[in-house]
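If you are new to this repository, start here. Below is one unmodified record pulled from the training split, so you can see the exact layout before writing a loader.
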Amino acid sequence: MTESVPVTPEVLRWARESAGLTIDEVVQKMNRKSVTYEVIEAWEDGFESPTYPQMERLAYDLYKRPLAMFFFPEPPEETSPKQSFRTLPEYEIEHLPQRIRLLLRKAQSFQLNLYELYDGVNPSENKIVQDLSFGVRASEVAIAKKVRRYLEVSLDKQIHSASAEEAFKMWREKLESLGVFIFKDAFKDDSFSGFCLYDSQFPVIYINNSKPATRQVFTLFHELAHLLFKTGGVDTRLDDYIDYLDGDSRRIEVLCNRFAGEFLVPKKDFENRVEEGAFDDYAIEQLASIYKVSREVILRKLLDRGSIEESSYHQKVAEWAQHKNGRRGSGGDYYLTQGAYLGKKYIGKAFSRYYQNQISVERLADYLGVKVKSIDGMEALLHRNGAAV
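And here is the target side for that same chain:
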């Protein structure tokens, strides 16, 4: 018989309620005759405890929480979407989809994990979020130049990346070496490209893996700008919400977009490459390929320099959006996908703690967000990719 695990009843109840589930709904989703209303009630009152397999089912499948959280002495204090995304207008926060709220909680869990894995101290010698800071009146050109110098990655190196996918990997590794942790997931909502959570020790950027690599690169730098302004933020497909902002919130959001565009496609270099005349899809595609960015970024640069009319800009963006299918994967390799989501630095650190007998295999599975039976596959991925520890 499988032994029960000593989870904290108050946390168990909090996790259910914060997931918006009634006890009856939990019983129905558990789909096991042995788990009745009375059993769930006894767990939450502390008279009985679930088994480990039951806790895995509750944590990962129903409540979408790290399993380790259920051993906390009390429910954790979570930052609300309003606190995390201060530059979003109220109506946008109120209408955040349930999936995005879930991913926000997941990102917050990763931040807690990072504090535990690294004993509260970011291991990077240089930390970009601590070393660089900008006021809301700074120009995107000045910010882009300073960030480029700090990263020590030339525009030439960016241009000579083999593909947008390789460019993203390069930027991810560079930023993670400078103290920013980057995670990915399938957002299942095409309106959102990513978001970030500011923290002085463990800032996190979360990227929609279903977006094309060119969009992921742009989102990476949009969110980096938010972190450099010491605030969380969201990168959405539509910028209509900016019209509802005012003051510094509006200035920051506009600057984040402009910084990402200027950093990836510097105005001076762009001017040297652009020839006057008609800018058809082929010419735009060629420029996008050079900088490893999306066509929309190039189109915006052309709009900003007055080469196209605003009506043409919106018409073309709408046309591309209508014909874009996105990256709709058909499943693929589960472990490769998890590797892309978590990143080799994070996976390597979790396994390092496990190899040093500092955490159990169950705790390792919790850090990685997988079930214990998947640890062997994750370990094979670790050695295949040579993840850093």
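Two things worth knowing about this chain: The radius of gyration is 23 Å. The longest strand covers residues 192-197.
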